[in-house]
Amino acid sequence: MYRKCSVIANKISDIIDGEVDVATRLRFFSHLMICPKCIKYYNQFKLIKQAASEPDPDELPADFDKVMGFVMKEVDANEKHNTGPLKEN
Amino acid sequence: MTAENRDQIAALKSGDSEVWRDVLSRNGAGLIAYAKRMLGDYASGEDVVQEALVNVYRTIDKFDGRCSIKSWLYRAVRNKSIDEIRRKKNFVDVGDDPENTYFNEGDGHWREDCIEWDGRAAREVEHKKMLRIVHDEINKLPHVYREVLLLKEVEGLGTEDICATLDISAGNLRIKIHRARSALRAAVRSTLSKE
Question: Is residue A39 part of a domain?
Fold first, then answer.
């Protein structure tokens, strides 16, 4: 079991991302069983990760048509004239 | 590299418009959302992606296939976004890692109780409000933290793609992600404590 809360804090991201081996997980969660402060910290990281990975509620849908149109205009023109990107430079 | 990837790269290099359309369609919305949040405004995000993608098209011959096309696109947009942040002088210093102040140097235990907001936030703060706070605070983070959170949590890129996009090692990425989450947690805690 890890003794220091500072060690636990350092490993939280790796734990919630599943980046550690079984032995490390065991030592980590053994500490959490006896440390309410670290449980709170761990839960806050999990909540942060979950909230950050959900869509932004005010996010406007990306309108890619304009950007796509601009790029494809050049791609289509070069294809039509059989130049392609390699011959462009 | 798979045979399918090799074919796709060859088609891109030859200027096959259908393949270009397919690649851009699959990644475009994510690239704009990423650029917009890196820069903090929608119009600049579109301009940066447009410029970056034209540049990708014109320099596709330099693509060596050592990373995925997706990473190549994100890297191009990321580099343009950083140029734009520099141009606007919008750099925010990362400052000290807040986690350094939480623990006693000797025994490594908490200096004071970890303020509880996970339970309260989960139960009492409306879910949408919590999301609003978290996303607002992501947008205020220094770009070195914001970019890893956007790529990992928001865009859902895998470790390999993020490392290729940012040109960093997996170990370095893990440190950046942890520091970014730690900074985000501290910012959210600060906002919640004012309410």
Answer: yes
Per-residue pLDDT tens listing for chain B (195 residues): 666 678 888 999 988 889 999 999 889 888 988 998 888 776 778 889 999 999 999 999 888 888 889 999 999 999 999 988 888 766 666 666 777 778 888 888 888 776 666 565 555 556 778 888 898 999 889 988 999 999 999 888 999 999 999 999 999 999 999 999 999 999 998 888 776
Number of compact structural domains in chain A:
1
Complex ipTM tops 0.90: no
Q: Which DSSP category does B115 fall into? A: P
The number of beta carbons lying within 10 Å of the beta carbon of residue B16 is 16
The CA-atom distances, in angstroms, between A85 and each of B5, B156, B174 are: 18, 30, 37
Q: Per the domain annotation, does A66 fall within a domain?
A: yes
Domains and CATH numbers, chain B: 3-87 (1.10.1740.10), 98-194 (1.10.10.10)
CB A52 within 8 A of CB B132: no
Give me the domain span that covers residue A20.
5-84
Contact residues on chain A for B153, CB-CB shorter than 8 A: 49, 52-53
A 48-87 residues with CB below 8 A of B?
48-49, 51-54, 56-64, 66-68, 70-72, 74-76, 78-79, 83-86
Q: Is residue A89 part of a domain?
A: no
